[in-house]
Amino acid sequence: MKKFQLTICAASVLVLAACGADEQEEASTAEGEEGMADEASADENTDEDTAEGTRTIEHAMGEAEVPEEPERIVALTGDALEALLSVGITPVGATEAMGEDEWYPHLEDQMEGVTNVGEMGEPDLEAIQALEPDLILGNQNRQEESYEVLNEIAPTVFTETYFGTWKEDFELYTEAANEAEAGEEVMAEWEERAFDLSDTLAAEEKLDQEVGVVRFTAGQGRYFYNDSYAVSILQELGFERPELHDEDEGFVENITQERIPEMDADLLFYFVLDDGDGEGYEFADEWMETDLFQRLEAYQEDQVHEVNQDYWNMTYGILSADYVLEDVEELVLNED
């Protein structure tokens, strides 16, 4: 009898021990699962914080995680600067104008408080860093060599070229600045104005003219192909192009004086790039006084018009595009 009772007791002890072990294991498992859940929840919160704090922008150099609401933006190109100004953003820094002025004259009254960060082709990296930007906007063609350093200073978004893609570039800049909706409104207003001007030009039978764009600088003349800023605007208005200029590949054609006849068009817009020493204008006068130039159809019909090189050829931006429309309206429609 005692032997049986001892056996029962022993069995009871084993059962209790087993039960205790199972309960401890279950408790341990529960604690482990709870801990893993807490860690997962923390990871989710971190991911949500990251997603809420930044946006991914695809650009010429890859992808950039930019702030949701950037507040200190540096613009390294004229079109980036104009994109920001057009949606009401004043950058903390911008590269200076090309030429003798610090800022482009048509933008100067909007540049109060903006720090000059050097030349577009060689921006002052120390000056940019001192501004503590949270977003930098630039261009691969202009600043690719500085990209790695710039991207260490702040998230950096680059467009690819500066030719005839000014509308796409504007869209990228405003998206990076989290002003895509405002940018769409600005572009829609410009396109409406361009459409109305095109209608008026057509009604006045001006669009059947072949239009060329020419630049003079010291020692160099050139005409522009379709993949260029000003020409893309003229084509959007509906102008025809001279056969030699009507190329979609390439940007410009540099020519020597004996090739002046290649510039010919019914309507010719020209601008002069001058460093302030007058040599650019001297070169332009020299070419335009030749018999070759004065035999051009545009010259014979008094349809050679000088325009401002800053907004026809330097900034490539949305505000400059408005000035181009103004010039076309004044010089083509109101020529009389």
Helix content: 40-55%
For the record, give the distance between the C-alpha atoms at the N and C termini, rounded to a whole number.
132 Å
What name does CATH use for the topology of the largest domain?
Answer: Rossmann fold
Strand order of the largest sheet: 5-4-3-6-7
- Tell me about the largest β-sheet: 5 strands, parallel
* Shape designation: globular
Pattern of helices and strands: HEEEHEEHEHHEHHEEHEEHHHEHH
Total E-strand runs:
12
Q: Radius of gyration, Cα only, in angstroms?
A: 32 Å
Low-confidence stretches: 1-51
- Oligomerization category of the chains in this entry: single chain
Number of separate domains: 2
Which structural class is indicated by helix and strand composition?
Answer: alpha/beta
Task: Find the CATH superfamily of the largest domain.
Answer: Nitrogenase molybdenum iron protein domain
* Average pLDDT number: 87
What CATH architecture label of the largest domain applies? Answer: 3-Layer(aba) Sandwich
The CATH class of the largest domain? Alpha Beta
